[in-house]
Design a protein that fits this description.
Elements (H helix, E strand, L loop, with lengths): L1 H4 L5 H9 L3 H34 L24 E4 L3 E6 L5 H6 L5 E6 L4
Length: about 120
Amino acid sequence: MILAAGEPWPQVRDSMVAADPAPMFWSVPMERAGQVLAATRAGRVAIAIERLRRRRRALPTSLAELPSPRPVDPFTGSDLLYQRDEDTYLVSSAGSGAHLVEQNGWDAGVRVCLRSARR
């Protein structure tokens, strides 16, 4: 368990659950930890988007326009998800799967949605 805890996300979650013969003991706390990490990372990406928007006066078309290294989704190890329209955008995590919503009654994904104030 100690070795598994030192791995990066998302491997740490999978390793902790695999190392314990009673995976439900670790799955819920690890999912919650992943959600907190995803929310923190989505917030950091939203701040970077706002900085870019203020410089350019427009939203980026993709997260690739943000400075590297960008925070990654702790559930997938890839970029967080990004959707936008004219003045609104959504930064989200894929989460770990819909099966957790059915099992535990809480959403496994994380979303940060921001809308600019019209002036």
